[in-house]
Specification:
alpha+beta; two-stranded antiparallel sheet; about 30% strand; about 20% helix; 13 strands
Length: about 240
């Protein structure tokens, strides 16, 4: 894992998107390498960004939470390393000193160890370093893990995000949104965005793509949710955190 100070220096999604615009060919090259190795189910390309800062001794962890009769939700938030339990790498970036892929975010629900694929890692490192895109793009493990589009929103008071099926929070196409994809998988005919996030006036982060409005990133209050089901998810997640 990377030091806390390194994690906290990562850009937010809008900053990361702006950085990435000059590196689209590099992103596509990374995707083509993963595709060539036949590992699109194991890895995708990740736009390196953060949601919240960490305290010393914490790691950012994705956890899947079953909300009875509603949905499977995914919560991402900080956990003390000693209380995180069994975790695996979910999102990875390149450590320039060791020239290795190191995890910067983790999951309790099936990540992947890139070191099991040394030839792939070598090819990705060479391409990422050569293109100078190592500060922009990393890897995501298991990019096809969710079987439908998910929507993500932040709860700043808990330094956490919650992902729910997008059908639970309809997208307002007239909200002045701009698409920003954060994860991609390889394959023909073109890279496919998956599992992204969306920033809107109500701070909804919609799966598949990330959108940002001219009002930028706003905090979502605890309350005023679009449906009783969504409120039930939030209350359940808070109860188990």
């Amino acid at each position: 894992m990377i030091p806390t100070t390194r994690y906290n220096s990562l850009p937010n999604v809008q900053e990361a998107h702006e950085l990435s615009l000059d590196f689209i060919p590099a992103r596509n090259q990374l995707l083509s390498i993963i595709d060539r190795f036949g590992l699109n189910n194991e890895f995708g390309v990740r736009l390196i960004h953060k949601h919240f800062d960490l305290m010393d001794g914490e790691v950012m962890v994705f956890r899947h939470v079953m909300v009875k009769d509603v949905c499977e939700a995914v919560v991402m938030g900080p956990l003390p390393i000693g209380e995180a339990g069994v975790i695996e790498g979910k999102n990875f970036l390149i450590d320039i000193n060791s020239r290795a892929l190191v995890p910067y975010e983790f999951t309790t629900n099936g990540g992947c160890d890139p070191s099991k694929y040394p030839d792939l890692v070598h090819a990705l490192l060479e391409a990422d370093v050569e293109s100078d895109a190592l500060h922009v793009f990393g890897l995501i493990a298991k990019p096809k893990q969710l079987t439908e589009a998910y929507t993500e929103f932040e709860l700043p008071a808990l330094k956490s995000t919650i992902m729910v099926p997008a059908r639970m929070i309809p997208v307002d196409v007239n909200d002045g949104e701009v698409e920003i994809s954060t994860n991609w998988i390889g394959g023909d005919p073109k890279p496919e965005p998956v599992d992204g996030c969306t920033i809107t006036r109500s701070n909804k982060h919609h799966g598949l793509n990330c959108r940002a409005t001219r009002n930028s990133h706003q905090s979502r209050p605890l309350g005023g949710f679009e449906s009783p089901e969504l409120e039930a998810v939030v209350k359940h997640v808070i109860a188990v955190m």
